[in-house]
Amino acid sequence: MGRVESTVTIVFLLYFLAFVRVLSMDLDLVNRLAEVLRLDEGDGPVLELNKAGIEEGKKRLDLCLVGKVIGPRPANKEGIENAMKGIWKLNHRFQVEELSSKNVFRFIFGSREDRQRVYGGRPWTIDKQLICFVKPMGLGEISKMNFDFTSFWISINNVPLACMTELFAREWAERIGKLEDIKLVNGTMKVRVRMNITEPLKRGLRVAVDELGNEVSLLFQYEHLPDFCFDCGIIGHKALDCPLRDFVGDNPRPDRGRYGSWMCAPSSPPRDRVRY
């Protein structure tokens, strides 16, 4: 009798654990399941969305951003709220909701102005990890959001005085990503660029300055740069955690150390928060 009761207990626990796993199904798993699983007529008729409900939902989306923390360390909504409350200093309270165990969160603001202050002030970091923000579009389908891009102000250093023009700033910025803005102030050149963070950071450009083949190295420095790998140059991990880390015997890869802290702008000015 005891053996039967023990077997029943084990079976019950297995069913219970399976049930709990379904309840706690991660959003990423749900999205992957939705890609391969299609409901049909056997599941009932197609329902039309209520237009008034859609309009109300879109108004709420106008107060939201969706952000993904890029890095190996897990983040939590309480930690984000406490950290960013003192940094953003918004006019109204904001809330953070966890959407996925993959460090994806929804940020709900008290006004559109507060939302724009945060979005226009990118990039933001938490615990030196980048928060990549996306404005929800349409109905706000998370599976269609792309967290691979963000914007940085980049100082272009060692520019010859004859090249300190918007024409050259535009040309060089477009080698990095999508140009958003240019600043030429007191002999310095800065460009704001929307760039793909899954690709290595660009260290600079080599520019030919005459017909004899002489060249100048233009060095890039990024404002508010989060953790990145000094070996592969990709944001989101450090060299010790680099998935491309490879050694030949006792010798490191010859291309290791191509990047470094010199790529971080030494002092970052106040953020421009009015950009749309």
Automatic annotation (TrEMBL):
<dbReference type="InterPro" id="IPR025558">
    <property type="entry name" value="DUF4283"/>
</dbReference>
<feature type="domain" description="CCHC-type">
    <location>
        <begin position="229"/>
        <end position="243"/>
    </location>
</feature>
<keyword id="KW-0862">Zinc</keyword>
<dbReference type="Pfam" id="PF14392">
    <property type="entry name" value="zf-CCHC_4"/>
</dbReference>
<protein>
    <recommendedName>
        <fullName>CCHC-type domain-containing protein</fullName>
    </recommendedName>
</protein>
<keyword id="KW-0479">Metal-binding</keyword>
<dbReference type="GO" id="GO:0008270">
    <property type="term" value="F:zinc ion binding"/>
</dbReference>
<dbReference type="GO" id="GO:0003676">
    <property type="term" value="F:nucleic acid binding"/>
</dbReference>
<dbReference type="Pfam" id="PF14111">
    <property type="entry name" value="DUF4283"/>
</dbReference>
<dbReference type="InterPro" id="IPR001878">
    <property type="entry name" value="Znf_CCHC"/>
</dbReference>
<dbReference type="InterPro" id="IPR040256">
    <property type="entry name" value="At4g02000-like"/>
</dbReference>
<dbReference type="InterPro" id="IPR025836">
    <property type="entry name" value="Zn_knuckle_CX2CX4HX4C"/>
</dbReference>
<keyword id="KW-0863">Zinc-finger</keyword>
